[in-house]
Specification:
single chain, about 160 residues, alpha/beta, four-stranded mixed beta sheet, two-stranded antiparallel ribbon, 6 strands, globular
Length: about 160
């Protein structure tokens, strides 16, 4: 499981990835002090909402995923809250997500990507799916059959 859009500003790697911080169109830094459900870290002030559309963050998170695949031979990886979107001045979040997933698919065609995003019939991120054979063919559709079955406001989607 990878926190696709969050980073701890107190970690040593921060200087390498801080360019991926999300800034709203009014220039305000988008802090991420609300994501954990039990609020044990609510308003601690050390999390930043990160933008996969920005190269330094996308490259770093992609390299972490690749490291886990290489080291442990996993057959899937999970992108936590990957479908979030903010009109950010540091890049297009959805295009960055698509680029990262397609890069990983090219390197690891047999490794499935699974992610989480808000569910709404009016919300469409664009497809990151494939034909199931890892070829990338079929990009243009997303499996959302679970939407009819799940009352949850947020549920996983499969990118395979």
């Amino acid at each position: 499981m990878f926190g696709t859009n969050s980073a701890n500003r107190k970690q040593p790697v921060w200087d390498k990835v801080k360019g991926g911080s999300t800034y709203k169109i009014d220039g305000d830094l988008y802090n991420l002090n609300w994501v954990d459900w039990n609020n044990d870290r609510h308003q601690d002030g050390w999390l930043t909402y990160m933008n996969v559309g920005e190269e330094s963050w996308r490259t770093w998170i992609e390299s972490r995923i690749a490291h886990v695949i290489d080291r442990f031979g996993v057959d899937a990886y999970f992108l936590d809250i990957v479908g979030g979107h903010v009109n950010s001045t540091t890049g297009d979040m959805h295009e960055g997500t698509k680029k990262m997933i397609l890069n990983l698919r090219a390197k690891y065609p047999k490794v499935a990507c699974v992610g989480e995003m808000p569910i709404s019939r009016g919300f469409w991120m664009g497809s990151l799916g494939g034909d199931g054979a890892g070829s990338g063919a079929g990009v243009g559709r997303m499996r959302r059959d679970f939407e009819r079955e799940s009352p949850s406001p947020s549920a996983p989607f499969a990118l395979n």
